[in-house]
Amino acid sequence: xxxxxxxxxxxxxxVVPDTVETVTEAVARGALAAEDVSATGYRQLPxxxxxxxxxxxxxxxxxxxxxxxxxxxxxDLLVHAWTYHQGHDFWSPAHYVAxxxxxxxxxxxxxxxxxxxxxxxxxxxxxxxxxxxxxxxxVVTTADRFCAPGFDRWRGDYGxxxxxxATAALLRSTLPGEAGRADWTDEGSLDLLALRSTTxxxxxxxxxxxxxxxxxxxxxxxxxxxxxxxxxxxEANGKESFARTVRLRVPELIRSSTAEAGIAADDPGLRCxxxxxxxxxxxxxxxxxxxxxxxxxxxxxxxxxTGHLGAGDMLAGFAALVDQKLIxxxxxxxxxxxxxxxxxxxxxxxxxxxxxxAPAGTARQARPRQARPPQARTExxxxxx
Length: 385
Hints:
Layout: E1 7-15, E2 20-22, H1 23-28, H2 37-40, E3 44-46, H3 53-68, E4 77-81, H4 93-101, E5 107-111, H5 117-131, E6 137-144, E7 165-173, E8 190-199, H6 226-237, H7 241-261, E9 270-274, H8 280-292, E10 299-300, H9 313-323, E11 332-339, E12 343-350, H10 379-384
Parallel strand pairs: 4-5, 4-6, 9-10, 9-11
Antiparallel strand pairs: 1-7, 1-8, 2-3, 6-7, 8-12, 11-12
Helix pairs in contact: 3-4, 7-8
């Protein structure tokens, strides 16, 4: 998507429940096989005992508005994305989030594009803000709750472990000459320089397998069984087919995204590539090698405390970039998202430079580029960076 108006992610937030289940606890109760612990690369998953996914989304969106000092009445557009059941069968969770937030005049849209839904929602919001000069403020939310009996967060999939949580991003646009508006804050914000997606629709069979079309949800079984459909896909296409596609499509996506942002893939100001939170095995077998084909920037796995957040991985990546101070003002990062179908998205973001010179002695020095490690760095390593 070519951005014709400046777009800023004024705030981004990740909200997860206080209750967690560690991998040690999951193994002890038989929910996770001991031999799978190293494959996760993660230490725990957040578990929502009481709050539904849309309720978590309202909290995340409210936190964004509070951080920006904006009233919900200023929101022109609210786009909500999800992967799994939102609590009701025939209903609009996007309108619930708008209602709960108090954004009663905002147009509410729902996006269901599997785990790339957050990126698709952001792309939709950006397109609306680009197309209509009367619109200035959009809130993008995601939320998922992967609970029993319909979903097994530890054993329902190969190589993915699903955490409950919500994410939100407050996106604002300006007209030419408005970049200095007083209600735009630099602290905690990111400028969106480019946002692109690519699709390999032939991979839709990975989540369909050999199953016929059913007449109602869960007709193929009471619990979602992604392993069954993935096993059928691997038997038909081979174990290396998906990794080959990732290594073809993701480098192309990174190169086209950085080119659209007007930066080189080897630019020293490109500090890192934030990976989707899909587990150590998938990242190291497919995504880390794919990233290395396009850029030497370090690849970060930030899912150690959350696991995979369904549709929320991209927006959670935005929040982590700021909260963990992974990039300094003037520095750039790529945030990748992936979802069944299959679609990959890449956002290029930059921490805006301070609006006014910092006092003497407080300027942060540019950090020397570090060599990319042979595997994705963990959340703890990223925090120590």
